[in-house]
TrEMBL record:
Record-level GO cellular component terms: fungal-type vacuole; plasma membrane
The UniProt record lists the keyword Transmembrane helix: yes
Coiled coil: none
Domain of life the protein comes from: Eukaryota
Protein name: RTM1 protein
Organism (species): Coccidioides immitis RMSCC 3703
């Protein structure tokens, strides 16, 4: 990482900063407020629905995002601050994993509701399998970040640490892709097992109401998954060329493919609360 933690805006050009730019103050304030609102909304929903396994990860994810964007606000004041850099890189790396965990817990309720017999995995196995995958990916990313940080402090090549981080991100993308494929297969099986025609009008109305309710839940839920996947794929591309790559030097790309993607995911998870399916 070609930066000097001892620099200031008065002594060094902005290009010496780790990102090569001064983070946008308005954009990072907006993200801080938005994720804070998402976390507070989920606290209220947890109080109403008592769905702790879903709400707690979403709240923790929102808190991590808030702290991460506070780190970027601090980088606006001093783009050469190592502490601010570590705050934002650690928190913004970890936060989406909490959102993913909420999704893994939520899919168990969906499988139970729509028909466990159509799922390749038992409902509780989704969380048992995919949450450890996220933990492994975070360990790799954290270890890689630590190695790269130490190397940069000692003016050594951070490539090894960066490669470990990329390996963690690739594993996260792979595990999320497997989850998406299993979920799509489950929904396909559920669709195929539905009766072709229903004659009883009361059953028709009940089925139609249930279908509309599932769409209102399922569309934002699917959007949350897609946004997290796009963000993870972006981080792989961003770090594949190391800390001097082209992507990492453009904040507009970061805002669009990191900040906006996870913000949409956070809002979508507040809308698609699993208790709405059973209400």
């Amino acid at each position: 990482m070609e930066s000097s933690w001892d620099c200031t805006l008065e002594t060094c050009p902005i290009e010496y900063a780790v990102f090569g730019y001064r983070p946008s103050l308005p954009a990072n304030i907006i993200f801080t407020a938005l994720f804070g609102l998402c976390a507070l909304t989920q606290v209220a929903e947890m109080g109403i629905f008592r769905s702790y396994t879903f709400s707690i990860p979403v709240i923790l994810g929102g808190i991590c995002e808030v702290v991460g964007y506070v780190g970027r606000i601090l980088l606006y004041d001093n783009p050469f601050s190592q502490d601010a850099f570590l705050i934002q890189i650690c928190c913004l790396t970890i936060a989406p994993a909490f959102y993913s965990a909420a999704i893994y817990f939520c899919i168990a309720d969906i499988v139970k509701l729509l028909g466990p017999e159509a799922s390749r995995l038992k409902p509780h196995h989704y969380a048992w399998i995919f949450i450890p995958c996220d933990v492994i990916s975070l360990i790799l990313q954290g270890a890689g970040g630590g190695i790269a940080s130490v190397a940069s402090q000692e003016n050594e090549d951070p490539t090894t640490g960066t490669n470990v981080m990329v390996a963690g991100l690739v594993f996260q993308v792979f595990s999320l892709l497997m989850f998406i494929l299993l979920t799509l297969e489950f929904l396909w099986r559920v669709r195929n097992k539905r009766p072709k025609s229903i004659s009883d009008e009361s059953i028709k109305e009940k089925s139609s109401s249930r279908h509309q309710k599932f769409l209102l839940f399922g569309i934002p839920f699917a959007l949350a998954i897609l946004c997290i996947f796009i963000r993870c794929a972006f981080r792989v591309a961003e770090l594949s060329n190391g800390w001097t790559g082209e992507l990492i030097k453009h904040e507009d790309t970061f805002i669009a493919l990191e900040g906006a993607m996870i913000a949409v995911s956070g809002v979508a998870l507040n809308i698609s609360h699993p208790k709405l399916l059973s209400s």
